[in-house]
Structures are given as structure tokens and as C-alpha cells.
Amino acid sequence: MFHHVRALRLTSCKFLCSHIHVQRRLFFLSAAASPQWRQTTDILLLCAAAQTLSQSQQIHAQAVLHGHLPRSVSISSALILSYANFYSQPSALYALFSQTLPFSRSAFLHNTLLRAYTVLASGSQKSYIDAARGFLIYNDLFRNTGFQPDDHTFPFVLKLCADFLERAKGLEVHGMLTKTRFNDDVFVNNTLLLFYGNCGDLGSVEKLFDDMPERDLISWNTVIRVFSDNGCWLETVGLFKEMVLVSRFRPNTVTVVSVLPVCAWLEDINLVSSVHCYVFKVGLDGEVRIGNAMVDAYGKCGNVAALSGVFEEMVERNEVSWNSLIGGLAYRGFNTDALDSFRLMINENMKLNSITIATMLPALVDLRFFSKGREVHGFSIKMGVDSDVFVANALIDMYGKWGHFTGASNVFCKMDLKNVVSWNSMIGNFAQNKRELEAINLVREMQAHGEIPNSVTLTNVLPACARLGSLYQGKEIHARTIRKGSAFELFVSNALTDMYAKCGCLDLAQNVFDTSLRDEVSYNILITGYSQTNDCHNSLSLFSEMEMVGMKQDIVSYMGVLTACANILAIRKGMEVHAFAMRRLSHEHLFVANSLLDFYTKCGRIKIATKVFDRIPLRDAASWNTMILGFGMLGEVGTAINYFEAMKEDNVEYDSVSYIAVLSACSHGGLVEKGKEYFDDMLAQNIKPSGMHYACMVDLLGRSGLMEQAVDLIKSLSMKPDANIWGALLGACRLHGNVELGCWAAEHLLELRPDHSGSYALLSNMYAEAGRWDEADRIRKLMNGRKVKKNPGCSWVQIQDQLHSFIVGQRLDPSLLLESSR
DNA sequence: GCAGTCCAAG
């Protein structure tokens, strides 16, 4: 019997002890007399192999009963480890340690407790408290005992430092082991590699790896892992090649499964294939983990044939293989195939796990199979994985994209362990569904819960601030990104630039732009931003600058710069852009063509606009609307109406904007009856009139002097009249000198737009024209009191290639004129 | 005593 046990222990008891064997031995031991217990080996074996908590407790009780505890260090240690493996009873661990009689404690017992805390701390859920307990035991070893740390102590404490990124402590331990000369030990150095790697200190990793007196297979695997974890993919592949070609070590399963994801991220199908060949050559192809990693790698490279081939040929498959298959298919959008495999997996009676669910859900979202997704949610509840972070986060995303906010927030609230992705998914749901305030508030709440917003949070919430125009919140977030350093990520700086631009703070937008990384998107944001301000000429210079810094203008750039040209009537510059776009064949893009129409009509070049329009092969509503608006603006009301009728015949889906265009044309031409007809026509089409439509109608009636009808229309509205409506009425009143009605309109207008200088000016001028000077003065004072600045009159001139803007009261630099005459 | 395949948010 003893020999049998001994042999087992020598060949690693963990793997050989079957459940039944342990049961039998336990039964035997509890029945037998105490001499059996002297065979410590036997007990250790049992402890190591104990497969349930109650077995360990049984052994524990027997040991106390037979008087081996609290004397035997071996038994205490074995029990401590056994308890730690069940992630339970942390108090029992320390009790076992402290109850062991002081004279029989040893460095070994300290090491065991330290190891146990390492196991507890670095389990599936990180436990900082157990990590702290581990560090206490390590410190205790120096201070309160007569023992010294040994080569078994350091790997554990270093693992804690590595897992918890305790950089200072790790450096201290490194110093200590140099002092105590344990730095020759290969185990210690391997863990040290991991520590430096996790801290991102690759320089130290490289140096240590070069200086290590001895390396083993694990050293190579660790260093490969560390480089891949730090995103140094080419270096990782280099190390792998060096290992194969130069070192005396042969890659094993761990090496291959570490290097394959790197080949996958590099999307280097040749690399994956060569590793695949190598695996065959050295006979590792039967390894299920390698097969799984292979399936995954081919999937990430988008080679569906190879992926399915490897999967088919695998001699052994587990649930990870199926998950990899499904994930690989879904990764490149083969969602239907992924769903088929998922069904097959169920039919084959494979065990689904949380990863299967978290892989399948996004594929179903992509397919818009939401009710199927809800079924999968049901599965996950049955399996008890619905509050797993990955599953729950995928569910939050799914319900959000489905528009089921209560579903999303139910999942979110039920999670007992949220992470930053959970918060970001919720924030994204709100931000992308026009619930901006909720998104912004959730960022605050997230911080109150101790979660730090990352770049994804910011790229989600900044557009929400932009849409709300809430500069204050945007600035608050900006300050935070500077503190956290994430403002330097391209995505974030672009979102910041966009937020400032949309809030109208182009100076701040420009500032972010000037101090951050830039790409084409950054330029487009500013070009578009400036095109909607008084600084349109900046759009033009940025457009040219793109060319100079080697960036290619795209559709968005053309659209932005053409809007700018239209706003400042920069005809020559706009035509240059047109020619430029033609050389790049970009003018064929519908959006660019529509921008050209807008530009030419606003500049009054209706003939060129017509030519551009005629050459658009497939016009959309915007193309037609722009032309109708253009003709209307130029007073060619008949043509505008003809275009509107032609549009209907062209089977283009005319929209509410089309009616704004045609109504404003009628209004310009004084065609009251025609306008009314179109308005009724619109109602008959079930197009809900907006404030803009009513404003057109008020304008139409008002211009023709039908003030009463205009007022009746305003009074009959079910909605609260907006600024456009009051503005239209005010304009009409000024035209017809109706001061009383004008005041009524203007007071409403100023209430809605207290910062709109034009309204004050209009009202004040109207009073002045009616000779009511004191009233005019009152309005001027009100405007000054509210600190409303009147936008100065501004004009532009193009001299040679340069566009110059100047405002009222400012003189053009004479040198420019000289230059132009040269 | 040290390394270890598959999953979620823009």
C-alpha cells in the first residue's frame, strides 16, 4: 500500500487520484486506527486530491481527532491549499496557520499560506483583500519570525505583484532577491518576467531575459506571452521564430496557443499557415487547445474555409472548439452560419457556457433577430449565466439596439458586478437614442460608483453633449480626459473637436485640433464646423491644408467646403473645388453633387446648377429640394413649381422638406392660393407639418397682407409656435408697418431667442420707422443689458488664391491690393 | 513553486 501511494505521489497526485479512489481511501482512513495517519504522504495525497469541500473538511476533522493538528506542518499546509482551491473559508486558512504550534511553524508554512492567498486573490474574481493578506504574510516572514524567505517564497509574492500591478512592491522584492542571491533561480526569474511584463516594462523584460543564467521552456513562453499581451506583435513573432530556429527548446502547446492569436491580430494568414504546418511537423495537431486556437486564428484572418476545415478534422472537440467556430464565423459577419453552428452545437448536446452566449448575442443583433436573442437570454437564465459580465453586457447592447430600454436597464440593474463595458453600453444606448441627458447623467453616476470613464465612454457621451449643445458638460469631460491622458487618442480628440464645433466654439475646437493627433476626420469636422459660422474662409484654408499635409479630401470634405463657399458666395473658390472634385471623379457622388447644387443656387448661378442637376443619374429628394429652393429664392417661382411637379412624376419620394421648398417658393411669388393648395396637399399625404411649414404659411399670408389669416393660423396651432413662426410674422409686420402685431410677435420671439441679435434689431428698427423712438431705445438697451452682441457685417474678397474676410469698420490691408495689381 | 485556447461597449 505504501509503495502504491508513494508511486502515485511521485507521478503527481493531482491528476491520478480519481474521485472514487479518494472516496475509498477516506472511508478506509476513517475506519482505521491512528497508525495509518503516520504515513504523512498518504494524507498529503488525499488533501491534494480532495475534490469537494466536504472531503477536505472530513480530512480536517480526522486530523484533529487523531491529534496531528495543530502539530503537523505538512497537514496544515495541505489543508490550507485544499481550502484555497475551493475559494472558500479564508478565515479557516489563517486559523490553520495560527493554530499550528509556533515551534513547528516554518518558512514552508508561510509559503503555503502565501500561495493560498495568491490562489484566492487571483481567482476568477480579483480579491484585493486576499492580495493584501498575502503581502502581510510576506512581510511577516521578515519581521516577526526567525525564518527567511526562500526560493519558494518569491514566485508567489511576485505573482501577486504581477497580478495586482504592484510595481513598487515588485521592485522592492526584486531588490530583496538580488540581495539574498535568489536571482539565479529560474522559477523566480520567470515570475519576475511576468511581473515586469504586466507592468508594461518591456525594457526590463528584455534585459532580464538576456541576463538570466538559466532559461527553460516556461521562460520562453512567458516572454512570448508578455510581448503579445503588450501588443508587440512583430516582436512576439520574432521571439517565436528565434525559439524555433535558435534555442534548444521546442514550442509546446502553451507556446503555440500564445503565438496564434498574435498571428490572427496581424491578420497574417501565411503566418497562421506556417504555425499550422509546424504543429503538424512536431505532432501537436491532436491537441484540442491548439485546434481551438487554430480555428480562432483562421476566423480572425477571415478564412472561413480553413476555419471549418480545421474544425472538421479535429479529433477531439470541446465546448471551446464550438465557441471558436461560432465566434470565427460571426467575426467576419457570417452570422447565419454562426447561428447554424449554434443550433448544431445544441443538437450535438454540447454544453453551452457563458462564452457561447456572449458570442452568439452580437451575431443575432447583427441579423436583427431580436426575438431569437430574447430566447437566448432565456437560455442564459436557465444556465445561470445571465449575470455574467460578458453575457449581461451583450444583453444590454442587444436590448438597447432593439429599443427596449427597460430590458436593457433590467439586465444592468440586476448585475452584481458591473464593469466599464456595462456602463459604456448603457451610456451608448442612451446617447444613440436621443436620450442625451440620461447618457450624461449616467457618466456621473458611473464615476460615483468608482468606475473610471475610458475612451469608449467619451466617444459615446461627447456626441451627446454636442447634440445638446451643452458646452458645460462637454468641458467638464474634456478636463477629465486631459487628466486621464485619453485626450490624446484620436477617437477622443475627434469627438472633442466635434463637440466644440457643434457647440459653436470653433476657437476651442481649433485648439484641440492643434494639440492632438489628426486624421481626415479631424479635418472634416473643422471644415464642416467652420462652414456653419462666420469664419467660412477657415474651411477653405483647411481644405487646402489637407492636400499639403498629404491627406486625401473625401466626400465629407467636399460637402463642407462647398457649404462654406455657398455661405460666403465664394464663387471662384467653389468652382475650383468643383473642378478639383471632377479630377478625382468625386463629383459623381450624389452628396457632393447635391452640395454643388446648393452652392450654385445660393450663388445665383442657376444655369450651372441646372447643368449639374441634369447630369445626376439618380437624383434623391435633396437634389430636387435644392433646385426648388433655388428657383424660389431667385423668384423663378413658376420653374420652382414645375420642378416640384416633375419631382412627383419622377417617383422620387418627396418629403417634408420638399413642401418647405415649394411653400417658400409660393411665398416668394405671392401665390397664396397655390400655397394653400400645397399645404392641404401635404396634409392629405399624411406629412405632419413642422414649425417650418407653419412659418412658410405665416410668411405666405403675411407677405400678401393677409395678417388676420396669419394670426388665426398661429392661434389655431396645437404646437407652441416656434421662433421661425414668430419671425415670419414679425417680418410681415415690418413689411406692412403693423406695429401692434409686430410687438406681439417680437416679444414672443425675444422670449424664445434672447440671444438672437437679429430679432432685437428688427424690432428696434420697426419702432424707429413708426417714429416710436423711446420704444426703439428700450429695445436697444434691453439688448445691451442682455449682453447680446450684434454680429458685425462681414464680407469676403478673393485675391489671387487667397480669400480674405473683413468686417465692418476694418480696412483691407493695402499691401494685398498692391499684390493683386501686380 | 512560474506560462495557458473561446466572449461584451465606440
UniProtKB/TrEMBL annotation:
Keywords: Repeat. The keyword Repeat applies. The keyword Repeat applies. It comes from the Eukaryota. One of its GO terms (biological process) is RNA modification. InterPro entries: E_motif (IPR046848), PPR_At4g14850-like_plant (IPR046960), PPR_rpt (IPR002885), TPR-like_helical_dom_sf (IPR011990). GO terms for molecular function: RNA binding. Pfam families: E_motif (PF20431), PPR (PF01535), PPR_2 (PF13041). This is Pentatricopeptide repeat-containing At4g14170-like.
